[in-house]
Every structure is written in structure tokens, then in C-alpha cells.
Specification:
four-stranded mixed β-sheet, elongated
């Protein structure tokens, strides 16, 4: 038998994040251990914030599998230069 696959979901507890959590839990197999980190509520040990920083989470929802941020969740943070080009601050 193989080891469990650790699926870590980073959320802000909003409607979109909660729907993502439900969908991932529905897709998870018995070999998947799903952990949900609500960054809005934080964690008692600060583990969720430390992991989000370690994995490079820039927006939520985001998912890491076996300690690596999944490609679809990379590089999605706010692009402040794009906002400025669109007229922010002008």
C-alpha cells in the first residue's frame, strides 16, 4: 500500500473558497489526506501562514499536493503594475 497523498487547501473562508474545498473533498480518494487552512481565521500554531509563505501562495484558493503548490495555483497574485496600467492611482 502506498503512502497517503497530502492535499493542503489554502482558503479565506469565502464563498468561492468554500466551493473549492467542497469540490476537492468530493474528488479526493481514500488515499488523499485533505487539510484545509483558513488563512482568514489563522491557525493556533501559525502553521497555515508559514506553509502559505513556504509554498509561495499569492492568492486563494490555492492547493498544494505533497508539499508543492500545484501549477494552476502559481503566479496568480495581484500584479500592481497591471493595475496601474489600467488606471489605478491616476
Amino acid at each position: 500500500m502506498s503512502d497517503k497523498r497530502v492535499v493542503e487547501i489554502f482558503s479565506a473562508g469565502c464563498y468561492i473558497c468554500e466551493n473549492t474545498v467542497k469540490e476537492i473533498k468530493a474528488l479526493a480518494c481514500p488515499n488523499c489526506e485533505v487539510k484545509v487552512y483558513d488563512l482568514n481565521k489563522r491557525c493556533d500554531t501559525n502553521e497555515c501562514v508559514e506553509k502559505a509563505n513556504q509554498y509561495g501562495v499569492k492568492s486563494v484558493p490555492a492547493v498544494a499536493i505533497n508539499g508543492k503548490l500545484v501549477d494552476c495555483c502559481n503566479e496568480r497574485g495581484i500584479d500592481f503594475e497591471a493595475l496601474k496600467r489600467a488606471g489605478l492611482g491616476q
